[in-house]
Design goal:
The chain is an alpha+beta fold. Helices cover about 50% and strands about 15% of the residues. It is globular, with a radius of gyration of 23 Å. Bound molecules: flavin-adenine dinucleotide.
Length: about 475
């Protein structure tokens, strides 16, 4: 059971019978829904890769908790080699799906909660770590997909949680009942939520004394009573509903969902932080750093797909040998590999936590993510430059197949004779998907805001860089007292 196939995963998630509000309708049977299907296909890929002889060494790993072979997407990192392999696995998924494959947030949440619960127990005499170990061994054994739910609606950004007009604008413990807690609030932008079995709820920022109700971390099944889903729209998303795959651009896709928790009961054994405000910041910081490392793999893989598509369209357009085109492709590779280098560097420079799992180097993980907030936009600009204006104006698949317009399209969109027009259109649609279509949500908007906007990384870089030490070293070197 510890290694599901893609089909077994799809069945297991269908068995949850989740429902969501999507574009004004309540929808069930989500696996068949045209907007959801591409995102489930991307998650299923992460399961099939664990059975593919070419990739199983990377995707399969022995669990430190249940001593079985598990999918690396549920692994607690035991070494810097594990951290590096995580980034390599994410890059492979990125180039294979050219979208967000949605399984990283839960993995990053688990590793952050594992070490934070250990530290919290040492300080407060709580027993969260053992609870979490038992829970996560169950997740690993059943090869589950877990949504990492951190981002609160946050209301007025200038106000603390307790000063908001509505206390639910930050998810909170609303009530205590026999054997557990009742939570109320919402989490926004939840990646792959409707493709997940479980939700790991975390606080969104460092809480202060007096904000204990908002310092909560717990696990909730996605089909729990009181949990409600509202599907997020992506640019060009309805292209996914169209019959001809040529207009869609990519048969894989991402998914983000607004998730409302309406008085949801969480039993004590699934609560991993409850009022210990001094550990809310530790959890946020560790999760964010793991997640910033993740972007050094997944967005690089999507970048690989964009570079490949750009080089191919240059060939199809007949300009591949032009010196400025070659330079632009090299610039794209340089930017993409710079992100990857940071992902690998923060992994290789990682270190063990007191709980035994490995944490990335916080400074380098934040440098990695700060680059991710910039470089994919430059990659997208270069791809748009090389691809040409057809990227924004190309006729539809229906017009290509129409007996009247089709011959004109084939005649006037012909370029390099080695490539049929339909293949040229396929490549242009993939680039369009990534730079201005539904895929741009995952490749660009998520690169900016996922795991926090650039200012969050700047703050961490400022904190981690040890500027005082550099000043002291220069003073020593120059003999300045
Ligand atoms: C595609 C996508 C997928 C995502 N997936 C997930 C997910 O799976 N799980 C999850 O938990 N989250 C997810 N997120 C959420 C992501 O982490 C947040 O979008 C991000 O942290 C920014 O928060 P925000 O959107 O509320 O923007 P804001 O916090 O409103 O930030 C907008 C701008 O305002 C600035 N700002 C905010 N507050 C202040 C302040 N007090 N003072 C000065 N400036 C301020 C910021 O620096 C930024 O420049 C995802 C986001 C995207 C776009």
């Amino acid at each position: 059971m510890a290694l599901k196939t893609g089909d077994e995963y799809l069945k297991s998630v269908a068995d949850l019978k989740l429902e969501a509000h999507m574009m004004g309708h309540k929808s069930g049977d989500l696996g068949r829904h045209g907007l959801v299907k591409p995102s489930q296909k991307a998650v299923a890929f992460t399961f099939d890769a664990a059975h593919d002889p070419a990739t199983q060494d990377l995707f399969c790993v022995e669990s430190s908790l249940c001593k079985q072979e598990i999918n690396r997407f549920t692994h607690l990192h035991q070494s810097t080699e594990d951290l590096v392999n995580k980034v390599k696995m994410q890059r492979y998924c990125g180039i294979s799906t050219a979208c967000c494959f949605q399984r990283c947030v839960g993995l990053d949440a688990a590793n952050a909660i594992f070490s934070t619960t250990y530290d919290c127990d040492q300080e407060h005499g709580t027993d969260y770590h053992q609870r979490f170990k038992e829970y996560w061994a169950w997740v690993q054994t059943n090869d589950l997909v877990v949504d990492g739910a951190m981002t609160d609606p946050k209301g007025d950004r200038g106000k603390r949680p307790k000063d908001q007009v509505d206390p639910d604008l930050f998810l909170r413990v609303k009530e205590r009942r026999e054997g557990g807690i009742v939570i109320s609030g919402a989490k926004l932008h939840q990646t792959g939520m409707l493709n997940s079995h479980e939700i790991l709820v975390m606080p969104t920022l460092t809480m202060r004394p007096g904000e204990e109700a908002w310092a909560v971390c717990c696990a909730v099944p996605t089909n729990e009573k009181g949990v409600r889903y509202i599907y997020g729209r992506q640019a060009s998303d309805t292209r996914k509903l169209e019959a001809d795959p040529l207009d869609v651009g990519n048969s894989f896709g991402g998914q983000e969902v607004m998730t409302v928790f309406e008085d949801v009961f969480v039993p004590g054994e699934r609560v991993f932080l409850d009022g210990e405000v001094d550990f809310s910041g530790t959890l946020v910081e560790r999760f964010a750093s793991y997640h910033r490392q993740s972007y050094g793999g997944c967005k690089v893989g999507v970048g690989d797909a964009l570079i490949g598509a750009t080089a191919l369209i240059a060939q199809m357009n007949g300009v591949a040998k032009a010196s400025h085109i070659r330079e632009k492709i090299v610039d794209m590779i340089h930017l993409n590999e710079t992100i990857f280098s940071c992902g690998i560097a923060c992994s290789a420079m990682g270190a063990p936590t007191a709980s035994g799992n490995y944490l990335v180097n916080l400074l380098l993980a934040n440098v990695c993510k700060l680059n991710v907030t910039r470089f994919p936009y430059e990659l997208a600009r270069l791809a748009t430059d090389v691809a040409g204006g057809l990227l924004g104006t190309m006729p539809s698949a229906a017009d290509l197949n129409d007996p009247v317009t089709g011959p004109y399209i084939k005649k006037y969109l012909a370029a390099n004779p080695n490539y049929p027009v339909v293949d040229r259109m396929k490549v242009l649609r993939l680039i369009e998907n990534l730079v201005v279509g539904a895929g741009a949500v995952g490749y660009l908007v998520e690169s900016m805001h996922g795991a926090g906007p650039p200012t969050a990384q700047r703050i961490m870089i400022g904190r981690q860089a040890n500027l005082e030490q550099k000043v002291e070293q220069v003073k020593n070197m120059l003999g300045i007292a």
